[in-house]
Amino acid sequence: MRILSGTPSALRCACCSCPLGPGCFPGSADAAHLQELERLVEHTMPVHAGHLLFRQGDRFQYLTAIRLGTVKTYAVDREGREQTLGFHMPGDFLGLSAIDEERYPCNAVALDTVSLCRLPFHEIAELATRMPMLQATLFRLMSRDIARATQLACNSMADERLAAFLIDMADRMAARGYAANRWQLTMSRMDIASYLRLAPETLSRLLRRFQAEGLVNVEGRDVEVRGRDRLQVLAAADPMRRSAAAGVQVRNQAA
Hints:
- This protein is an alpha+beta fold.
- It folds into 2 domains: 8-152, Jelly Rolls, CATH 2.60.120; 155-254, Arc Repressor Mutant, subunit A.
- It has 9 helices and 11 strands.
- The strands form 3 sheets. Strands 1-8-3-6 form a 4-stranded antiparallel beta sheet. Strands 2-7-4-5 form a 4-stranded antiparallel beta sheet.
- Helix 1 crosses helix 2, helix 5 (158-175) packs across helix 8 and helix 6 packs across helix 7 (200-212).
- The longest helix has 23 residues, at 132-154.
């Protein structure tokens, strides 16, 4: 549903005033291509926590950019078990995993109040053939999702996965202009445990251990990272990466 005027000037203003700025699609493109891109954007009405944005198996038509709020993606197996696949924040895109089969392989649900921009995929893909910066942005978005999934898969130990999650959250918060060491979780511990492939009791035990070791402070949904360097060492599952991370920590302490 379009909630803004369809004129190029109105759409351009909406994109220019968006708090995501250049973190979304390229803003330095030539005026004609930028105007064409903005004309494709559909701004939807805000939705609230619990609202399903799309369902597993639905036909894929749009790439969806998150302007505000947090979205959880999850899949449900034949036995009805839910597996959390990811948490998506402002500047993230939904739908990239649906391009191949043109069906969403998962569900997406709002965790709080969420505002979205929708972009019809086939029109965006055609425009990307004439707009190299747009094509590069699409590749970057795909690469980012693959890298995050790869990192989670490479962390075989439970404490490594939790450390990697905390570092990733800190980096994502910082990239959006928020404090990197202190934030409030919008997702439940049950969802985090599912995402990290942990039992909820294991997650609670690890959080207590991290807190006792001075790595984090957790009060309800409020999280404060206190030992980032040590978390980075722990998150580096590969022995060579862990050695390199430990070396950086030693140099930082000596400086």
